[in-house]
Specification:
Radius of gyration of chain A: 15 Å
Largest sheet of chain B: none
Strand content of chain B: under 5%
Number of helices of chain B: 10
Number of strands of chain B: 0
Order of helices and strands of chain A: HEHEHEEHEHHEE
Radius of gyration of chain B: 19 Å
Distance between the termini of chain A: 30 Å
Distance between the termini of chain B: 37 Å
Oligomer: heterodimer
Shape of chain B: globular
Largest interface: A-B, 20 and 19 residues
């Protein structure tokens, strides 16, 4: 299982700089979180959120090693619950396998993303509708994201089937 | 709040949450081991080897532990369907909450997702039962589809009672 962020970085430039604060929704075992923590450097910070306790065991160990990360065992669909555990961030990186991924992203962006903050949103079309054509699902999502400025739409078919990545800013 | 303070708070909080696992998590781990033992016993039966006391002992031990947890978590569904079948259904559904919110037709087909999506995409025959097939009343019935449907309806009712009466 390769990191999706690596695949994206092979194709385009990614808006992560040193000193950035990042909210990572769907951190899982921490493979991509490690990459992000290296990119943001000592002065940056990564909030790694995941809903599953099985995965959180490895994630806590990872966060204890890397001083610019911290673990959060919460449901990304309920940002009110972790409002006080997270600061405002420069970037939201979301990689969730949920049917309402777009709603989750909008809710979190409203509360946590700075005015000129950027985002990397990975769309897992299989979780939204496993029978529809993925390009149709992508079209529907792009219509609903008119408030955001999308710079790149990346097709990750070579490494991750039926996944798209959206890179942009508010 | 200072970032380093936040970090320490978050690490403390998540560790505290992890030290109290939910019953469904424990069920997942026990079922993993139980399913492996079942698989290996089946394989050996096919080759003709029977009567392995060690494996059967450990299988019974896992059964006891699973039954304990399921009877606390969902006592009424455990009476209708056997304790282990409810445990597997809770695992397939994800949690007792999801099982309680599923329509009974979905409960009927838990475990038959491959056949179901084939039916939707390619137009093959629809599956009649998933993991619910392994209940005695379905296996012995003459009309398996009917038995599976009726059992799934019962399970759906009791799962709702179990979840919402807590």
């Amino acid at each position: 299982m390769t990191s999706k962020l690596k695949a994206i970085m092979d194709i385009t430039l990614v808006p992560i700089e040193k000193g950035d604060k990042v909210l990572y929704l769907g951190a899982s075992h921490g493979i991509t979180a490690e990459l992000i923590s290296k990119l943001v450097g000592k002065k940056g910070f990564v909030f790694c959120l995941d809903i599953s306790a099985e995965v959180m065991e490895t994630l806590v160990k990872f966060c204890e090693k890397h001083e610019n990360t911290c673990p959060l065992l919460f449901d990304a669909a309920k940002p009110e619950e972790y409002k006080k555990r997270v600061t405002k961030v420069d970037l939201i990186y979301q990689d969730l396998a949920q049917k309402n991924q777009l709603e989750i992203f909008k809710r979190n962006a409203k509360i946590f993303l700075k005015k000129d903050g950027s985002f990397i949103l990975i769309i897992k079309t299989q979780s939204i509708d496993s029978i529809k054509d993925p390009s149709e699902i992508l079209r529907d999502i792009l219509k609903e994201l008119k408030d955001f400025k999308i710079e790149e739409v990346i097709n990750l078919n070579k490494t991750h089937a039926k996944h798209y990545a959206l890179v942009g800013h508010q | 709040m200072d970032l380093q303070k936040l970090r320490k708070l978050n690490i403390k909080e998540t560790k505290a949450k992890l030290s109290k696992p939910s019953p469904e998590l424990i069920l997942n781990k026990l079922l993993q081991a139980y399913n492996e033992i079942e698989k290996s016993l089946e394989k050996l039966e096919k080759k003709g080897i029977k009567g392995l006391k060690d494996l059967e002992k450990s299988k019974k031990e896992y059964e006891k532990k699973i039954k304990k947890i399921v009877k606390e978590l969902a006592p009424k569904t455990a009476k209708v369907a056997s304790a282990i079948l409810t445990a597997k259904m809770i695992q397939l559904a994800g949690s007792l909450e999801k099982l309680a919110q599923m329509p009974s037709s979905k409960i009927q087909l838990l475990g038959a997702e491959k056949a179901f999506f084939k039916h939707l995409k390619l137009g093959t025959k629809a599956p009649k039962h998933g993991i619910i097939f392994f209940h005695a009343s379905v296996r012995k019935a003459e009309n398996k589809g009917k038995a599976a449907r009726q059992l799934a309806n019962e399970i759906a009712k009791k799962a709702k009672i179990d979840f919402y009466s807590k």
